[in-house]
Amino acid sequence: MSDQVYKNFDEIDGEILRILAIDPRAPYSEIANKLAEAGYDMSGEGIRYRVQKLIDATMVFYLIDPEEIQWEIVRIFVRTTDEAGASEAAYEEISDMSFWHVTRSLGTYDIYAIGFEPSINEINRLVTEIRENEHVDEVWYGIVTDWRTDMEQYYSKPE
């Protein structure tokens, strides 16, 4: 990511991301035509500038569809103990486990993690390992049975 934070994300950026999500190789001229259809008149150079800023401000990762490889998705919520440094220590330890997404947060839980494993037995092993962590107070988890992704919402600018 660039040193300069991309602070001015707007509707045009969201539209560019939607276009690129459908066709990552879309030429700037095609993006300009689609933006014009959406009511935004931009030059190819303006689009190139915005695309570069978006690339600098985004992270790229490839998600395997767990159903295609018959794995189970697990989402884990962890509340840590009240000891000083417990949240940081548990976060570091859980980050070293086989989760592909781990976050620390404020609220009803301290750590949230998403991962997938080849079997429910492996998920149970992970949950047990987390529960046995000295910095962990409680663990809630769910094995995902269905999901819906709305990229329109993801690429929309928050109100």
Summarize the structure.
A 4-stranded antiparallel β-sheet has the order 2-3-1-4, covered by helices on one side.
**CATH fold topology of the largest domain:** Alpha-Beta Plaits
> Which structural class do the helices and strands define?
alpha+beta
- Percent helix, as a range, is 40-55%
Number of structural domains: 2
Strand order, sheet with most strands: 2-3-1-4
Name of the CATH superfamily of the largest domain: Lrp/AsnC effector binding domain/regulation of amino acid metabolism (RAM) domain
CATH class of the largest domain: Alpha Beta
Describe the secondary-structure layout.
Elements: H1 11-22, H2 28-37, H3 44-57, H4 66-69, E1 72-80, H5 86-95, E2 99-104, E3 111-117, H6 120-131, E4 136-143, H7 151-154
Antiparallel strand pairs: 1-3, 1-4, 2-3
Helix pairs in contact: 2-3
GO molecular function, one term: sequence-specific DNA binding
Protein name: Lrp/AsnC family transcriptional regulator
Pfam family, one: HTH_AsnC-type
